[in-house]
Amino acid sequence: MPIAKPVRRKRPGHYHHGDLRRALIDTALRVIEEDGLAAVTTRALARRLGVSHAAPAHHFRDREALFVEVATEGFQAFVNALESAAATAASDPNARLCAIGLAYVRFAIEHPAHVRVMFGGGLREGVRWPPALKRESERAYRVLVDTATAARASTGAPSGSVQDLAFGGWSLVHGMAMLWIDGPARQTYATPAQFEAAAARLIASMFCCSERPAAKD
Amino acid sequence: MPIAKPVRRKRPGHYHHGDLRRALIDTALRVIEEDGLAAVTTRALARRLGVSHAAPAHHFRDREALFVEVATEGFQAFVNALESAAATAASDPNARLCAIGLAYVRFAIEHPAHVRVMFGGGLREGVRWPPALKRESERAYRVLVDTATAARASTGAPSGSVQDLAFGGWSLVHGMAMLWIDGPARQTYATPAQFEAAAARLIASMFCCSERPAAKD
DNA sequence: TGTCAATCTTGACGATGACAAGACTGGAGG
DNA sequence: CCTCCAGTCTTGTCATCGTCAAGATTGACA
Fold first, then answer.
1. pLDDT tens profile A90-105
2. Tens digit of each residue's pLDDT (9 = 90 or more) over B103-155
3. Are residues B54 and B101 in the same domain?
């Protein structure tokens, strides 16, 4: 968990908190995991941190700005996860594609709160996606498209255009991630490990036909 | 659009609205499409309908109850769409599976507001899924699993268990639907028609291996 | 016509996001 | 050591929201 960090309450009697901005973000993530997006209120965060109700406003213009920051950090970590997965995978483009897909799902398992904000409507309501956020999210998609292009070029990939291949793969892993985070997938796969294994099988069967584990029926 | 209906404002001077309950649901859907989930407030709906701010409370205990009702209606329409797609499809189980998947995506295209409430965190925050809602959503999944089972039995379906086949298919169509509703897919496919066509291709390449143009490996 | 349950209104309360104005803190420069 | 000041936080306030309680209006039925 490279992202989570200890959250420090203000030392009572001390006027300054130390790093309220950081603490607000971390606490928001914690609250999202515990009680959902709707439970994130600036006042609740302030209470948790032992700080006045208006203190958060000095670090984030409004509630939306906090979510934008969370999403931006999330996308940065997300891109890193995808890229490092691609880098450490075998040189075979199809294997890289599988690695990226699995990294996508794994990120959702490990950072559900970030994903909720990034995709789950945490933003998008008041909607202004600032440039930094937009750039990071597009970078994430480009990693996928580039690898898909390479895979398509190197092997006789599954049918369809590169566009379809990339979007289809994206949809598969995105769907798996969402169904896990929102709950439904937990009824089919009880533990994260089981779910991740299933994800690996499904990704393999979509991308890397050659590596598909022997049909076990 | 079998769901949308005209929304009637209260005739001024008349004390009763006529069918405020229905109007609240329909107006909520309209607001969601126009301004997102967060814009749905009981007071705003009341204003739109020319009714006092507390009137909605007599039809839905709280905001959550309204969303529950919207979701329940959504799942009913959803199940109907899936089942009727399966019924009208060719008798080949694989073709039926494709038809169901495409119906899933098409439902999302045609009823984005419902889907936002059903899957997009409209509920699940305050969370109590009442039995009626739970039952409908499980019915939807069962349609998919049953057809997948039949497909698996009849043909040498793709590798893996029925569980994986059903969940993989679900993930693919769910992912496509979400990426369309949340926006990202619109950058790849400009119009609903283009998107739907791509969905059909991807679904076919996942489910109906026999119909896949290029054999893999 | 009289009654009554359903429906809607008015008024109020606590909580939230946001704004304004003032108080505290710690470091830079005299 | 003292003073000043930008950054940080607090207090106080407002409009809006969801929710509750109590009362007013309506239409249907006896």
1. 778 888 999 999 999 9
2. 999 999 999 999 999 998 767 644 567 888 888 888 988 898 888 888 877 76
3. no
CB contact under 8 A, B159 and A212: yes
Range of the domain at B52: 1-60
Q: How many CA atoms lie within 13 Å of B132's alpha carbon, on the beta-carbon side?
A: 9
CA atoms of B159 and B175, how far apart (whole Å): 21
From chain A, the residues in CB contact with B127 under 8 A are: 36
Q: CA of B58 to nearest chain A CA: how many angstroms apart?
A: 24
- Co-location of B17 and B121 in the same domain: no
Instruction: Spell out which residues of chain A touch residue B189, defining contact as CB-CB under 8 Å.
Output: 167
Residues B148 and B202 in one domain: yes
A178 and A204 housed in the same domain:
yes
Is B215 among the domain residues? Answer: no
b (16+ CB within 10 A) / e for B150-167? bbbeeeebbbbebebbbb
Nucleotides of C under 7 A from a protein CB: 7-12, 15-21, 24-26
Query: What value does the mean pLDDT take over residues A36-55?
Result: 94
